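User: What would this chain look like folded?
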Amino acid sequence: MKNAITAISLIVLAASAASAQETTWSGSIKGIVEKHCLVCHGADSAPEYPLFKKEKEKWLTKGQGMRMDSYSHLVSFVGWPNTGAMMRRLDDGKSSKDGKPGNMYQHLGSTESERQQNLGLFKAWIGNWSLKRWSDTTKDDLIGIKVLY
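Assistant: Here's the prediction, encoded as structure tokens.
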């Protein structure tokens, strides 16, 4: 009986430690987005994705991207319908065929060290860091996505 209680206690402690280390939107990613992304992707200045897509050149000329200020806005650029878009834009080039970083990598921080740290948090949050588009994505690819709130 004592061994069973000890085993259960160890399992509970291990599970608590694992969940404490989970990277979440509310615990890590939201702060990065607020600090580095909302100038161009905030609710006050950026359009919803359908409007951005419809008038892309107009928004890009203004230096604005689509709205990315919330969990629900970001998640659609990870899983569906814009599968992998977040990863393609934030990647440091180590996952791409041509070795070039994504167009938003430079905005993840003011130093390479900060960019790598923030990229690591995004990778931990997303889970399956894949640059694939929807048509190339498998069920296993999707199952590997975490994006915990």
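Residues 2-20 form the longest helix (19 residues). If you want, I can go into more detail on any region.
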